[in-house]
Amino acid sequence: MSNNINVLGIELSNSRLSLGVGNLGGTLDYVERMPASPNLDQDEFERLFSASAVALREWVDARGIDLRQAAMSIPGYGREAGNPIFPWDMARLEGFLGKVLPGLPLALTNSVVAQAAFNRYAMPSTYAVEGDHLFLFVGHGVAGVIVNEAEPIDAFSPFEMGHMVIERDGLVCRCGHRGCVEAYTSLRAVSTIIGVPGNEILARGDRFLDALEVDNVAREMLRERQFLLGLALGNALNLHPVPAVVISGWPSLTPESDRSAIFDGLNQSLLGGYDEGRLSLSFIAPSIGNDPKAALSYAAYCFVSGGGLEAASDARAMEETA
Ligand SMILES: [Zn+2]
Predict the structure, then answer these.
(1) Mind listing the pLDDT tens digit for each residue in 119-155?
(2) How many whole angstroms separate alpha carbon 300 and alpha carbon 31?
(3) Centre of ligand 1 from the C-alpha of residue 181, in Å
(4) Are 21 and 85 within one domain?
(5) Of 75, 83, 136, 152, which has the most beta carbons under 10 Å away?
(6) Which residue range is the domain that position 31 belongs to?
């Protein structure tokens, strides 16, 4: 039954705008991905989306599919003072999407919240952590969200660990500052180190490191970047202590001997040092290049948690008795 219910996911990630349709079971039956600047402005977004919405509508209509929920995930979304990464007018965005997708309930969320929803509700589940923890996503952006088990996932507030400055006058970041964690540890930084273009990494997905002859210099650099990630993570945990951290990102794909650098970094910044008895750190595969699956998962989550499934089965029962 839930396989007949379709949702729409829209994602701004990996320097592209992706939209896709799938069912509540996590399929991706229709997808379109368009290159988009990491600093995409709102006019350009509207132009790109309007063009792709025509093809989407044709695909949906040809199959008699009734879309029930849409969700869009945006890096940096949800800050009261506005989004410094995509400084768009949110009322205008909602108005625009409401016009292009009339009658379709829409949820906007931060990219890391959508990633957390994707990982927690993935079937089969690979998410072994229970209890309150930090979910840290290390992709084109680097962001975390404190997962409080007593709260629904849409109530979580993300924090932009990627823009913690760890090197004064360091590498340039897309936010305009220098020396941010993201400039050192995002997939874009990795792409530069290993000499593989970003779109090729996305096409290879979670196996992008397997096929490579990563030389010792690059490997040492990746270790150093993981050390910096650990350093930043320890600082974040000093501000907001939690007993467990789950990392989803390229470090999850590196050999254990390399990602031990994260523990070394943690050890140098976390108050009291790193102690596995006090902090459990685990890694899950990031599903690189699968956008907009995270936004789709979030749309499915919103549909189900909003009571959509019950309403749909009530309607089905009424049809059957009629
Ligand atoms: Zn930054």
Answers:
(1) 888 776 777 788 899 999 999 999 999 988 888 887 7
(2) 16
(3) 7
(4) yes
(5) 136
(6) 2-114+290-321
